[in-house]
Amino acid sequence: MPTTPTQGHVVVAPDKFKGTLEGAEVAARIAAGIRRAAPGAEVRELPVADGGEGTLAAALAAGFTRVAVKVAGPTGLPVDAALAVKGDTAVVELAQASGLARLPGGRTAPLAAGSFGVGQLIAKAVSLGVERVVLGLGGSACTDGGAGMVQALGVGLYGADGAELAPGGASLRRLERLDLGSLADGLTGVEIVVACDVDNPLLGPRGAAAVYGPQKGADAEDLVILEEGLTRWADTVHAVTGQDYRNNPGAGAAGGVGFAALALLGATMRPGIELLLELLGFDEAVRGARLVVTGEGCLDAQTLHGKAPAGVAAAATRAGVRVAAVAGRLELSESEWRTAGFAAAVALTDLAEQPGESMTRAGELAEVAGERLASELLAG
Question: Which residues form a coiled coil (predicted)?
């Protein structure tokens, strides 16, 4: 039976369901289910992200304008990428240029993959006259310490023979000279803000190579090579700038792109979901709301440590609005998700009739989840 909601709108603010649905698709499906169960409800769709993959899509759904750019992919081959612009702010998603999904044929290149395309996206944003660039890190294919990114912005990296270094983390072992060129002048008046949820340093057992290298195809020998390259990179940057950022939290993010952003772009780092909610106007969207529905592919222990649904729940709770979650899988106990601030949680796996349907019928089941939440939480 359709319910009759009391006053107040509903905000549907999920992250993507990785491997099945983009954030905007999840939001649309959940919203459709809510509208079916509560025809009188005003439902506003506001897909979110935490700075990783899906950040660009979330910005576009929130009214940013897409700017197409052809840039170098992680192995140097050109890829069609995009950034998002609204007013004086641009959103750059690293994964658009240097993400694992951009690897030709899906073949990893742990030693040679680079971040040059990320720098090209930043350069395009700056050329548009923006005053702030929000750089979302996540899903990177490279472990080059952000060297490629700054090369695209005019920095020179040279070996003993005077030749420019080839892309990738392995070549950093041969770095002899760093020329910052006109980097600072090119970024004058532009604030770089990094959306980042990891606190890993650049080097060591918790560093970019050791922790994330295996995800990018690096074997034990590769990890030694990458660690040597990143060490040489950090030492050289320190010698040239007089500043040492290798141990800063987040320096190891995205294969060390976080390090270059801090050390050479003068970037500041903020928790990804906090920054994105601000950018997407979440506080305004939730004002006067009756319910917020968020979610992601898997609601688990990691969710509680800065992932998008936890950030949405915290922000909704501060606004005095109940929040519910829809997830592909639910690996938290009821006491855990209630303690995290959720009034209800629905898993697609619990709605599926057959194993695997939570993936193959994710959209349909997300609508069913929306219906169920509306019936439970929007009754007059």
Answer: none
